[in-house]
Amino acid sequence: MAPIISVKNLRKTYSNGFTALDDVSLDIRKGEILALLGPNGAGKTTLISIICGITNPTDGQVVVDGFDVVKDFRETRGRIGLVPQELTTDMFESVFNTVSFSRGLNGKKPNPAFIEEILSDLSLLDKRDSALRELSGGMKRRVLIAKALSHEPTILFLDEPTAGVDVALRKDMWQLVERLRQRGVTIILTTHYIEEAQEIADRVGVINRGKLLLVEEKDALMRKLGKKQLVVQLTEPIPALPASLAHLDLDLNDAGNELVYAYELGSQDGVIARVLDELTKAGLQLGDLSTRQTSLEDIFVSLIGENA
Prior knowledge:
The structure is a single chain. 32% of the residues lie in helices and 28% in strands. By secondary structure, the protein is of the alpha/beta class. The protein folds into 2 domains: 218 residues, P-loop containing nucleotide triphosphate hydrolases (Rossmann fold); 69 residues, 2-Layer Sandwich (Alpha-Beta Plaits), CATH 3.30.70. Strands 6-7-8-3-9-10 form a 6-stranded mixed beta sheet, with helices on both faces.
């Protein structure tokens, strides 16, 4: 199946010489949720802006559902909904009219029932006649989402959609994302809340300094780059590791009462049993045992550090 979005050798260099994107290539599948992770200034918003036709690339090509984003702007833009970081709405217009206007702007016929459905999904129906200037920051963010969905796009971009908003909106947002996924909408999001990407994304892309470092299935990424740790509490502290354990990748805490053994995900099942057997043979008194697993955030920080 052809990708719904195909990005080829994309480059964006500004007049001051700054390169925001450096030879980025990426295929996005229809119906998937792709999370783009990267620090501030990494190029995430620039990439989204080019795919959405807001900014032109210096070089390269973007094709959306078979149409070039530069040559066929109207065709591609009608397929895309964008929730930007910034609040850019008429503060004196009502919620209902703002969302309805956005639908018309994208060439769709009026459909009040559909607009009300969106407002209801986003807990905005009781605010339909309120002016935007009367709303809280979180409610204004909901209006941006409603505008992006007003013309029934098949592709939705969420650029830091939950940054600075309350927990209730964050929960509503991800419930809505899941409903959209079930309808076949392709969703691309950028977020600083890495635990959210770990929770809902199918694939994860990491971008830094304008370069796309990787795009990987989330579960495969966790298996490939993740680690597990065996944490052993000792009943009696020790001053240092016995020499007989020097060949093991063990860390002893400052108090001398906790050992941590790191091992790769997917290691043979017997690895923990062997380590515990060696600890016992070394004369250590073992207490509580636990394991913990590397998170997506750990992997992200590691990748960014390697490419700093």
